[in-house]
Design goal:
single chain, about 375 residues, alpha/beta, TIM Barrel, six-stranded parallel β-sheet, two-stranded antiparallel sheet, about 35% helix, globular, binds zinc ion
């Protein structure tokens, strides 16, 4: 894929041979079986390149060769081409037929992707979203689509990641950012697990029966029902995500859980003090129990005091703060398989910026492969 860069240089990106060109719902007849949506091209944002020395490129290649590259938070789907207002996008979401970004993933180095699918924009039957029937619809629709191709492999256990990497495929993990859809039914955790979901958030910004969300003014911590849910998630083997929880609720979940948990997409309040990001004590608590910290790349979140706009440098400031400085080598090694590769990328990218290769984050990158994945494109060997 020849790709013109802003400086006029043409670079070729490599595509995985395991991808055979499948596009979502190609087992159906467009317009006859479903209404076609005008999705934006996955590569609408263009290409950005960080120039590295041959030694640096070889080092990154070696890391990617020997470690599975796991993205613990994505929405591997599309925006509508028309994003001038909410209507076109939400009209598309209401059809309940979210297209998966197979081709985009085929150009990435990602070996395993945690896909949160429609999530907060799952408005099939309700403008407020998060309805049980809609979540099951979204999941079933995606699994049906996955069943008609063999590039993304539905991942239900850790070994699936390693076998996918060996075969040049990508392990696909079903995830949900919040648990509002289980209402007051703890058994729905078993059902979600049975349907193939492996990561579940406690709250999605607003409060629910389990606890308080990060958007609220007050935080009552994990409820009695929330504790029961944490215990059930431990028992069935569901990874607990506290990215969108209030601070107390997140801290309670970390301490109640008998297993390590994840903050799949967050950042440090010390770098940018907003409700959505985490205080040092919480980051430390997650790390001390063997958990994983993933850095949020969605627009207007991981900004910093030194950057008035959200771009890859402010993102990397959070990464550098939360990684080697706060979590220490033990957790760095044990907690996150992708971490060494990304830490290296952080240094390379920051160096690239100093050389004048500035990158910007666009709001439309909220879905699809976001800013954090730009550096993950596979460069074709020259
Ligand atoms: Zn989120």
């Amino acid at each position: 894929m020849p790709s013109p860069l802003p400086n006029g240089v043409s670079v070729k990106f490599a595509q995985r041979s395991a991808y055979k060109g499948y596009r979502s719902f190609s087992y159906l007849v467009p317009e006859k079986d479903y209404k076609v949506v005008d999705w934006a091209d996955w590569n609408w944002a263009g290409y950005h390149m960080v120039e590295c020395t041959l030694e640096e490129e070889a080092r990154v290649a070696e890391i990617l060769k020997t470690n599975p590259y796991v993205s613990v938070h994505e929405h591997a789907d599309f925006c509508t081409r028309d994003m001038s207002g909410k209507a076109p996008y939400f009209d598309a979401m209401r059809q309940g037929r979210d297209a998966c970004a197979y081709e985009a993933l085929s150009y990435s180095n990602i070996d395993c992707v945690f896909d949160n699918m429609m999530d907060g924009t799952n408005v099939i039957s309700s403008p407020a979203g998060w309805k049980w029937i809609d979540i099951v619809h979204d999941l079933g629709m995606r699994l049906c689509d996955l069943a008609h191709q063999d590039f993304l492999v539905h991942c239900t256990k850790a070994d699936d990641i390693f076998s996918a990497k060996r075969e040049g495929k990508i392990a696909w993990v079903a995830a949900e950012e919040g648990a509002a859809m289980i209402e007051n039914e703890v058994d729905r955790i078993d059902i979600l697990y049975g349907l193939g979901v492996r990561q579940l958030g406690i709250t999605y910004s607003e409060s629910n029966a389990l606890g308080s969300g990060c958007r609220e003014d007050a935080d009552g911590g994990l409820t009695r029902f929330g504790r029961e849910c944490v215990e059930r998630m431990n028992k069935v083997g569901m990874l607990i995500d506290v990215s969108h929880c209030g601070t107390q609720t997140a801290y309670d979940a970390v301490t109640v859980s008998s297993k390590p948990i994840i903050m799949s997409h967050t950042g440090a309040k010390a770098i940018w003090n907003i409700k959505r990001l985490a205080a040092d004590e919480l980051l430390q608590a997650v790390a001390e129990r063997g958990g994983v910290i993933g850095i949020e790349a969605a627009p207007h979140t991981t900004m910093s005091h030194t950057k008035s706009t959200h771009d890859i440098d402010s993102f990397m400031e959070h990464f550098e703060y939360c990684g080697p400085l706060r979590l220490g080598p033990r957790e760095l090694h044990r907690g996150q398989l992708e971490h060494p590769a990304l830490a290296r990328q952080a240094r390379l990218l920051r160096r690239g910026h100093r050389q004048g290769h500035r990158r910007q984050c666009d709001p439309r990158a909220a879905r699809g492969l976001g800013i954090g994945k730009i550096c993950a494109l596979r460069r074709e060997a020259s």
